Amino acid sequence: MVRAPCCEKTGLKRGPWTQEEDDILVDYINKNGGPGNWRSLPKLAGMSWL
Questions:
Q1: Total domain count for the chain?
Q2: Does the CA dihedral 36-41-46-50 come out positive or negative?
Q3: What does the pLDDT read at residue 39?
Q4: Domain assignment present for 1
Q5: What's the rounded Cα separation, in Å, for the pair 5 and 21?
Q6: Whole-prediction pTM value?
Q7: Residue-wise pLDDT tens digits, 4-42
């Protein structure tokens, strides 16, 4: 039996955040607090391109 993939990885960007991305994430956390699931943070912060 093969395990189904957990998420779509096409176009997945790996590596460190750019300064712009980092600023967006820090701003979101300062306004809303940290999410329960850190993997969902970029999407919650409006970074749908990730």
A1: 1
A2: negative
A3: 84
A4: no
A5: 26
A6: 0.65
A7: 666 655 666 778 889 999 999 999 999 999 878 888 888
Contact in structure between 17 and 25 (CB atoms under 8 Å): yes
Question: Which tokens is 25 given?
Answer: 């994430």
Q: Which H or E run contains 42?
A: helix 41-44
Give the residue numbers spanning the domain of 30.
15-50
What distance in Å separates the CA atoms of residue 20 and residue 45, rounded to the nearest whole number?
A: 12
Residue 8 falls within a domain, yes or no?
Answer: no
- Say if 26 falls within a structural domain: yes
Give the three-state DSSP class for 4.
coil
SS3 (DSSP) at 10: coil
Read off the amino acid at residue 35.
P
pLDDT score, position 25? 92
The reply to whether 21 falls in a domain is yes
